[in-house]
Amino acid sequence: MNKKALTAIAAVLAYPVAVIAGPDEDKLVINEELNMISVTEAPAHAENLDTIYSGWHFRTDETQALQTDDFDNPAMVFVDQAADLFGTVDGAAGKSCASCHEDVESFKGLQASMPKVDAESGKLVVMEDLINKCRTDRMEADAWKWSGADMQGIVALIGLQSRGMPVNVAIDGAAAPFWEQGKEMYYTRYGQLELSCANCHEENWGNMIRADHLSQGMTNGFPTYRLKQAKLISRHNRFRGCIRDTRAETFAEGSDEFRALELYVASRGNGLSVETPAVRQ
Amino acid sequence: MKLRLITLACALTGAAAIAAETSPKEIQYDEYGAVAEPLTGVAGDAANGAVIVGEKSKGNCVACHEVTALADIPFHGEVGPMLDGAGDRWTEAELRGLVANAKMTFEGTVMPAFYKDEGYIRPGDGYTGKAPSAPLTSILTAQEIEDVVAFLATLKEQ
Prior knowledge:
The complex is a heterodimer.
Chain A: H1 3-20, E1 29-30, E2 34-35, E3 39-41, E4 51-53, H2 61-67, H3 76-86, H4 97-100, E5 116-117, E6 124-125, H5 127-138, H6 149-160, H7 176-186, H8 197-201, E7 208-209, E8 212-213, E9 224-226, E10 231-233, H9 235-244, H10 256-268, E11 279-280
Parallel strand pairs in A: 9-11
Antiparallel strand pairs in A: 1-2, 3-4, 5-6, 7-8, 9-10
Helix pairs in contact in A: 3-6, 7-10
Chain B: H1 2-19, H2 46-54, H3 86-89, H4 92-101, H5 142-153
Helix pairs in contact in B: 2-5, 4-5
């Protein structure tokens, strides 16, 4: 047998090994009662994936454990602060969130369907947009900074109300053009390293890139408590960091480009449980 | 006599380095993506090449490739093929082409081009996330490419 043939065999053998080294087979159960869908069949529109996995399956046992009990989950400190903030009056109108939305539980289900197109304006809106619109229009308060602690705390608090529900964002109808824009971005090889989202999170999930275990880049756990930053991280902040790391001029948090990308990436996770607030490395 | 010849040869190649460094815009790939001509007149330094392959701020090749020869550096990736035996599998010209711009050999490969300074989508100013304020330079210099090629050529299966 010649060397080329041996190399070819080695290459073929490498694939199953890489897949086994990929996501683990642990079961994500929160507080010993909430069974999460963290692995499921990929939606038809994620045409290059068969199975979708929560990013939880790519993390170490220690990091995973932090998310399975709310007393251990470091994100919950920020969620508790947000619950206080929810009832705190701010702005010239003398209102708090609770003045209109008496119980935060009324937001159950909202996160699972976000982002969505606002029927009135025809624009694609994400949770941060809804919150800032309430603040500026109804509370007559200043808009919050996109990735600030106040904003991401409330995004997490509202997201938590949908925890366990499957992500189910609409990609058709009015959402279709935004979804197409996001899809195009997902496959665009940005920056001097010429890397697309797909290069890492579709073609190489399960593989190690230096010390990092590449996941499928699912957003169902955001805002996520990231251990290395020790705070809640917004979806757009993570997009920004990824694109920056391709040696590219990134897009701004709160840009229409990132709204579109947020919709597309969320749609790839249709069927996974909302995990907000997740814990990652 | 021998020593004098070597000295003379060194002097000549040194002069050639100054005279003829192939820029990223001038580099010539053959139809299979190989680059026959060295990019500089100075022979590659394999020891420095090993540093570039392992160094995060340089080539950071180990982010994606495992290399047994650099086992003392932690966390080798598995996105690209293992580099052990690369010196057997590829000629120097092929290695030069692969390091400079692997897309000329493997269309659509994930691997970044290390000797290219234009034709990017939204290139940034290094890893700042901002737009560049000066003309782009290639990720590695011509001599660094030669050094990496020299190191890769030493990677033989036994």
